[in-house]
Amino acid sequence: MNFNGLLKNTNVNSCIECGKCTGNCPVSRFNPNFSPRKLLSTFFNNDQDKLLQNELIWSCLTCGMCRVRCPMDVKFTDFTKIIRQKALKTGTEANCAHGGALQSMMKIMTSENLNQNKMEWITDDLEISETGEILFFVGCLPYFDTFFNELKVDTLAIAKSAIHILNVLGIKPVILKNERCCGHDLLWAGDVDNFKKLAEENITEINKIKPRKIIFSCAECYRTFKLDYQELMGPFDFEMMHLSEFISEKMENNNLGLKKVEGCVTYHDPCRLGRHLGVYEPPRKILNAIPDLKYVEMPKNKVNAVCCGTNLWINCDKYSRMIQNYRLKMGRQVGSNIMLTSCPKCYIHFTCAMQGEQIPDKEKIIVKDLAVFTAEAME
Fold first, then answer.
1. In which order are the strands placed within the sheet that holds 239-242?
2. Which of 7, 55, 80, 252 is most buried, with most CB under 10 Å away?
3. What whole-number distance in Å separates Cα of residue 75 and Cα of residue 83?
């Protein structure tokens, strides 16, 4: 199998095997068998076939922490993505959580003749439009809401809150009736063909509307559109923004009517919004603008933020739970009673971890999405 392109695109040939990637990796912290440096060493020793069969290639969270300390700018996350693509072609697959049901859902959404009933969640108090300059990309929130019902998470509250915020700002966003999954998980799990199908279907639907701007509440959807879709299809005519960026921008000239909120909160930077896209300040600007609210930083924040421990709905194991508990403990130690984030999966994973027996009730912390918290502060 040809790996020449891998060397060119990921800079792995510059690796000096210093091990700083492994030293900074959240997975390596708890799983002594996982090491980015050792996986690269296997590659350099011309054991590519052995590497493709190594189940540890699916343990990487692709969070980007390794690159933070790499002195040679090796793109290990991109290396992992390409290795998984090649492994998938040999018949090697990841160990999917939840019986692979979520992956099956994503693949079903690649169908050209798909007719979804995704609009039932939109209540009468939310104002949307069939045409307009601003489109809100909902993502898989309606499906997550049903699938993780037993966790008592309310992922649809994120979408409802986003629309409410936009309405307060005088915007009636367009919602696509037949929007698909963005394909983030399929791409990073090596399934490029189905990722391309989802990307093409979504852009076809978007081009029917011809929006000026697309707003995302999901960090992964935003990353996928802004980086992966444009890499696949070239530059788009529309602008893309995360909801926190949009709100932060509007705060310069608009009164959001933020009410006083007592309490202490902290913010967890999602990997995709933070290290992958560099969006750190907008969420903090919003929180610091809420009257009476105390905002505190966790020890590891912004570019050094710890991942939520699970990615792509694969390899959800004891090490994932250790990473989650490690991160949640940081939130509790700084005295906050609420941990906020801007990624539905972070919200789901941390909420799931909170229901485990490892965390006593007195040490638990409320996990909320930033959009929901902001909308509540605007009421």
1. 134-137, 213-216, 239-242
2. 80
3. 12
For residue 360, what pLDDT is reported? 78
Determine the 3-state secondary structure of 366 from DSSP.
strand
pLDDT, tens digit, for every residue of 95-110? 899 999 999 999 999 9
Exposure on the CB side of residue 228, measured as CA atoms within 13 A: 24
Q: What is the mean predicted confidence (pLDDT) over 237-249?
A: 97
What confidence category does residue 124 fall into, taking pLDDT thresholds of 50, 70 and 90? very high
Strand partners, 214: 135, 240
Look at residue 119 in the predicted model and tell me its pLDDT: 87
Q: Is the pLDDT of residue 247 over 60?
A: yes
DSSP state at residue 237: S
pTM: 0.96
Which tokens sit at 213? Answer: 């701007």
Q: Hey, what CATH topology would domain 264-378 get?
A: Rossmann fold (3.40.50)
Can you point out the beta strands (E) in the chain? 134-137, 213-216, 239-242, 264-267, 294-295, 338-341, 366-369
d(CA 75, CA 13): 10
Question: Which DSSP string do the residues of 311-349 spell out, in sequence order?
Answer: BTTB--SHHHHHHHHHHHHHHHHTT-SEEEES-HHHHHH
DSSP 8-state secondary structure symbol assigned to residue 307: P
**Looking at residues 223-252, what average pLDDT do you find?**
96
pLDDT of residue 252: 72
Angle, vertex CA 163, rays to CA 133 and CA 285, nearest 5: 95
Q: Give how far Cα 129 sits from Cα of 89, 173, 291, Å.
A: 43, 6, 32
CATH dotted code for 97-250: 3.40.50
Per-residue pLDDT band for 48 (boundaries 50, 70, 90) equals: confident
Comma-separated ranges of CATH 3.40.50 domains in the chain: 97-250, 264-378
Question: Could you tell me the two tokens for 127?
Answer: 């104002």
Residue with tokens 């992922």: 155
Q: Is 102 helix (H, G, I), strand (E, B) or coil?
A: helix
Residue position matching structure tokens 């959800």: 316
* Dist. CA 300–CA 251, nearest whole Å: 27
Residue limits of CATH 1.10.1060.10 in the chain: 4-89
